[in-house]
């Protein structure tokens, strides 16, 4: 009997998995939630079965991906309901199908970690607006767990979003973001808190605290942080956010090209991450996806030291989002990249690019509708919202439906690069403007519709 159980189980598992994959493919054109539910409930998978399930999962419908930067506004008394009411609960009737939850900046998070420091507790207890973190620790929960649980209960997909090199802690405006890890490892950073960046750096001003990815210690701690989340939280995937902020090697800041050997070391890190997500995915019986957010020019990414096309060729990425403070190429180019590598692609909208200013309370809905409509027409798979946090925002019930947008008042613009913005293409790579491929007919002229 024992021998029969050993030989029969893999066969049964294979047959069940193939059935789930086939049913999932049929459901992907109909009830997407049912398809995802079947994938979620599949038994422990072989590697081949996991990859089939991952291909289904990466192509699920995501009308809008919402990035929550983790700065949820929570006032006492601290309860799960009040936390979710800040930015999440009212999304239940929106077009937001996926939440990318960013729980902090490198080495300082609101989720519980044995590797990083925790915002709002211990030496970071005075971080403004994070008093709720300790309260939820006492309840044996945290920000990421609460978001994951809400998404499970409301049929939403959820990713942990990791900012690969957030440089807010370089600024005197946010002194509380500096961690002991960075203070104790100055050799792993671009510069120092005392002296800033070296005088030889031609760009990257105000970014001394960025981690150097040519240092093996940095790559290891980044891997450890990602692995910790993947093994401890029931997320559907992880996002590697290379837009916050786009500097990873010293050479671009010195006006030099990044050596291929350094880019290969970065690629090897993502191979290791992919292997880890496959191991964890097989153990839990459903895939862990890997998303990236990048500048929308492959040439610009290489100038930063990111060999993105190689990552896509090696199947190290499942979802690609392009653009942020500026975009460099027509959305059609991003859509073509998705077609070429069989990955869904998303158009990122941020206030500074769309309206030319940050944190304005006056949203020009016509501009946002036109931006989204043009992106849909160009062939993207969905819309990605950055720095929009109001869950009652009407745009979260409009931008994910191109047929609805066609009927609404809009200005059909596509914004690329606004010179007055705080971040410019040349801030991060030498001759950054050479990668701008803005069509002449989209240089600021707008068309009112309908």
Strand and helix layout:
Elements: H1 2-27, H2 32-40, H3 47-58, E1 64-68, H4 80-87, E2 96-101, E3 104-105, E4 108-109, E5 117-118, H5 132-138, H6 143-153, E6 157-163, H7 180-184, H8 216-232, E7 237-241, H9 250-253, H10 260-284, E8 289-294, H11 298-304, H12 308-313, E9 319-322, H13 331-341, E10 345-349, H14 351-354, H15 365-378, E11 382-385, H16 402-407, E12 410-411, E13 448-449
Parallel strand pairs: 1-2, 1-11, 2-6, 4-5, 6-7, 7-8, 8-9, 9-10, 10-11
Antiparallel strand pairs: 3-4, 12-13
Helix pairs in contact: 1-2, 1-3, 8-10
Region (Disordered): 419-450
Protein name: Family 10 glycosylhydrolase
Organism: Aeoliella straminimaris
Labels describing this entry:
single chain; three-stranded mixed β-sheet; globular; alpha/beta; disordered N terminus; Family 10 glycosylhydrolase; 13 strands; GH; 450 residues; eight-stranded parallel barrel; TIM Barrel; 38% helix; 16 helices
- Shape summary: globular
How many strand segments? 13
Helix coverage percent: 25-40%
Runs with pLDDT <50, length 5+? Answer: 1-40
Strand order of the largest sheet: 1-2-6-7-8-9-10-11
SSE arrangement, N to C: HHHEHEEEEHHEHHEHHEHHEHEHHEHEE
**Which architecture of the largest domain would the CATH scheme give at its second level?**
Alpha-Beta Barrel
Q: How much is the radius of gyration in Å?
A: 22 Å
The quaternary organization reads as single chain
Q: Find the structural class using helix and strand composition.
A: alpha/beta
Q: Output mean pLDDT.
A: 90
What's the level 1 CATH class of the largest domain? Alpha Beta
Beta-strand portion reads: 5-15%
Distance between the termini: 71 Å
| Total individual domains | 2
């Amino acid at each position: 009997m024992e021998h029969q159980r050993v030989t029969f189980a893999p066969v049964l598992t294979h047959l069940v998995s193939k059935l789930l994959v086939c049913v999932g493919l049929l459901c992907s054109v109909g009830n997407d939630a049912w398809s995802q539910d079947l994938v979620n409930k599949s038994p422990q998978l072989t590697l081949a079965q996991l990859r089939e399930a991952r291909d289904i999962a990466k192509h699920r419908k995501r009308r809008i991906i919402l990035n929550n930067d983790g700065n949820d506004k929570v006032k006492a008394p601290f309860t799960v309901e009040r936390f979710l009411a800040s930015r999440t609960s009212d999304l239940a009737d929106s077009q937001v199908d996926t939440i990318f939850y960013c729980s902090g900046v490198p080495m300082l998070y609101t989720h519980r970690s044995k590797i990083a420091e925790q915002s709002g507790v211990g030496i970071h207890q005075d971080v403004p607006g994070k008093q709720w973190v300790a309260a939820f620790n006492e309840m044996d929960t945290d920000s990421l767990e609460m978001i994951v649980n809400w998404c499970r209960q409301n049929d939403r997909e959820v990713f942990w979003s990791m900012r690969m090199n957030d440089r807010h802690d370089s600024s005197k405006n946010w002194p509380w973001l500096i961690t002991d890890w960075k203070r104790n490892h100055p050799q792993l950073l671009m510069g120092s808190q005392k002296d800033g960046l070296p005088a030889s750096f031609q760009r990257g001003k105000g970014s001394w605290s960025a981690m150097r990815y040519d240092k093996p210690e940095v790559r290891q701690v980044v891997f450890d942080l990602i692995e910790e989340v993947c093994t401890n939280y029931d997320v559907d995937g992880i996002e590697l956010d290379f837009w916050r902020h786009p500097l990873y090697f010293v050479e671009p800041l010195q006006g030099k090209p990044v050596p291929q050997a350094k880019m290969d070391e970065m690629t090897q890190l993502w191979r290791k991450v992919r292997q880890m997500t496959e191991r964890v995915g097989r153990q839990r019986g459903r895939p862990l996806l890997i998303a990236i957010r990048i500048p929308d020019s492959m040439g610009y990414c290489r100038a930063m030291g990111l060999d993105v096309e190689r990552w896509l060729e090696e199947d190290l990425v499942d979802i690609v989002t392009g653009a942020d403070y500026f975009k460099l190429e027509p959305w059609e180019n991003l859509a073509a990249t998705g077609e070429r590598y069989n990955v869904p692609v998303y158009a990122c909208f941020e206030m500074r690019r769309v309206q030319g200013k940050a944190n304005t309370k006056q949203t020009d809905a016509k501009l946002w509708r036109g931006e989204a409509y043009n992106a849909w027409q160009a062939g993207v798979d969905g819309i990605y919202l950055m720095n929009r946090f109001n869950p009652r925002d009407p745009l979260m019930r409009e931008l994910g439906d191109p047929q609805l947008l066609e009927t609404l008042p809009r200005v059909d613009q596509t914004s690329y690069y606004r010179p007055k913005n705080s971040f410019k293409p040349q801030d991060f790579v030498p001759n950054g403007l050479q990668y701008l491929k803005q069509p002449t007919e989209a240089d600021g002229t707008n068309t009112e519709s309908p």
